[in-house]
Amino acid sequence: xxxxxxxxxxxxxxxxxxxxxxxxxxxxxxxxxxxxxxxxxxxxxxxxxxxxxxxxxxxxxxxxxxxxxxxxxxxxxxxxxxxxxxxxxxxxxxxxxxxxxxxxxxxxxxxxxxxxxxxxxxxxxxxxxxxxxxxxxxxxxxxxxxxxxxxxxxxxxxxxxxxxxxxxxxxxxxxxxxxxxxxxxxxxxxxxxxxxxxxxxxxxxxxxxxxxxxxxxxxxxxxxxxxxxxxxxxxxxxxxxxxxxxxxxxxxxxxxxxxxxxxxxxxxxxxxxxxxxxxxxxxxxxxxxxxxxxxxxxxxxxxxxxxxxxxxxxxxxxxxxxxxxxxxxxxxxxxxxxxxxxxxxxxxxxxxxxxxxxxxxxxxxxxxxxxxxxxxxxxxxxxxxxxxxxxxxxxxxxxxxxxxxxxxx
Length: 409
What we know:
Elements: E1 4-7, E2 14-17, H1 26-36, E3 45-52, E4 59-65, E5 68-69, H2 71-74, E6 81-90, H3 99-108, E7 121-122, E8 125-126, H4 131-138, H5 141-150, E9 173-178, E10 183-190, H6 193-213, E11 226-227, H7 231-264, E12 273-281, E13 283-290, E14 293-300, E15 302-304, E16 310-313, E17 321-326, E18 335-337, H8 346-352, H9 355-361, E19 366-367, H10 384-390, E20 395-408
Parallel strand pairs: 2-3, 19-20
Antiparallel strand pairs: 1-2, 3-4, 4-14, 5-11, 6-10, 6-12, 7-8, 9-10, 9-20, 13-14, 15-18, 16-17, 17-20
Helix pairs in contact: 3-7, 5-7, 6-7
């Protein structure tokens, strides 16, 4: 048995946690116990080894629910996830200095606070949508109009069409990696950008108001939920699935743009992409069948890992990442971790570490090495090897990747 069992003192709520050998902070334990007590939980809450405290629901948790959804459990970066593509390039095809390759990627994709420095970029998006971005938006436009017509507060000042193919900030990244055979991969991490954030925040607030209106007492106000069949439930399901589609298209568009720009940059030989490409959410909700019942499964910082299904588990910007294949472990609701998981807050990392620490920790990686990324220093994360060891019964490793270039938002 690869998990430990937690339960509340009153016997209500069950948690199965794949956390052997990794930190599982007291605050996160309290949060998952609270979540497990909700009356609509199906069977138990599953906890992944990258678990750490979040807003209401714990990051690194899998929450199966019957006839209800907790919008704060999905979070505000709806559909956030990973994409990785194998290329025909090998390590010997890369130039001695990778700074030029990093600059090509930074110019290709609007990202974080540095977006406005590149031609065509503005405030984390595009000044004008390139043709590739316009094509990507066509399939999303009608759904967006439907959402904002019913919920005008979800609209963003920066039109979502101008953020497709952009990275965002925080822990979002684009990397050039080498696998165990020195094959080159392009990997990226991003989500539904500003529009997903607005949708998430608006519906979290609506859920809180519904709880007050119906005088429902909760162990945590951020566990406010929508019962199935209510107007807000139906609107949220439509909006969250649209945002998940937006996030997937955002990653696909970004990847196409990166590959295209690298092809014409003159920095690399001509190359093709391999058969293996993975695009997976790790903040989302879907209806699935588990233990004979159709339920909503919310993965807040977790990846679906059905038997044979491919996923991505990234480490920090100085550690290995993994392409994995699911083992279909039903007790985890066919899930695995979404990364290494933080051991300290961004504020704590900035207080504890210096630019010199960041430089040492990312030695050999072409990346920003300044005060703006200290919060993403590898030491702020759990040991990815320990995280992988704790979930051996959830996934098997297909490829091990080590970054040589990292573009941080």
